[in-house]
Amino acid sequence: MRKIVAGLILGALLITFVAMILPLEFGSPRMSDMDDYFIRYGQEQTGNNNECTAIVFDYRGFDTIGESTVLFTAVIGVGIMFRRFFGGEEVEDE
Fold first, then answer.
1. pLDDT digits (tens), the chain, 94 positions
2. H or E stretch including 61?
3. Can you give the pTM of this predicted structure?
4. Domains of the chain, residue spans
């Protein structure tokens, strides 16, 4: 019964995903006014030669802080799991 329910849920998710991407026109870039603005004024406003870095860290700074916090927490969690499962050396206080 669990396999049937899991299969139905997976099928529904797959159908939803396909229905969401079908209307997209692949191969034709959709440039917006915001894209033109970033390309035209990005280096002047941020002083950064790398536009991707400028957008992520300068224009989207507050959002990036949240993303960085989530990634940091995930890395710490994975480190703790590896240490616990693979038997890292214990550090004793002197």
1. 889 999 999 999 999 999 988 877 777 666 678 888 888 888 888 888 888 878 877 777 777 778 888 888 999 999 998 888 877 666 566 6
2. helix 61-86
3. 0.38
4. 32-82
